[in-house]
Sequence to fold (165 residues):
Amino acid sequence: MTLLEPVGEAPLRVFHSDYLETLGLVERLHRLLLDVIKDEFERLNLLDVNAVQALLLFNIGEHEVTAGELKSRGYYQGSNVSYNLKKLVDGGYMHHQRCQIDRRAVRVKLTEKGRNIRQIVSDLFDRHSADLAGFEALEAGSLVHLNAALKTMERFWGDQIRYIY
Fold:
């Protein structure tokens, strides 16, 4: 059966239930990820950057981007990007500079202090990746299948937003 073929009522009910479970898991996983980062920063006594800001620094990496690009590139998932950028600039974690072409746009990139925070998050993810690789409950390639399914959902949701009008 393909996704385009009609689905019987019983299989559709099961699929719907699985879909709702996936939605809940995605939401809880994102919150747990932020909690894991927060705990790591508390353990290291780094309290001037919150988990959302640390993840933003991690995702930007070596790129130089505008505030608008943060969302379109998937670097930032929240609604208060201006607030977090201002905090990171004020804290010395990011440089900002007006765009030469469009003076309304501001380009941002990490400072050395921001790269240090990024490295802490990267090291945390490296440790977790190594730990998970040895976890018996995860079969080889299972994350590949999970990522493929999540990318399909991402494309589907993106299409729902783009083609609403």
User: Anything to note?
Assistant: The mean pLDDT is 87.
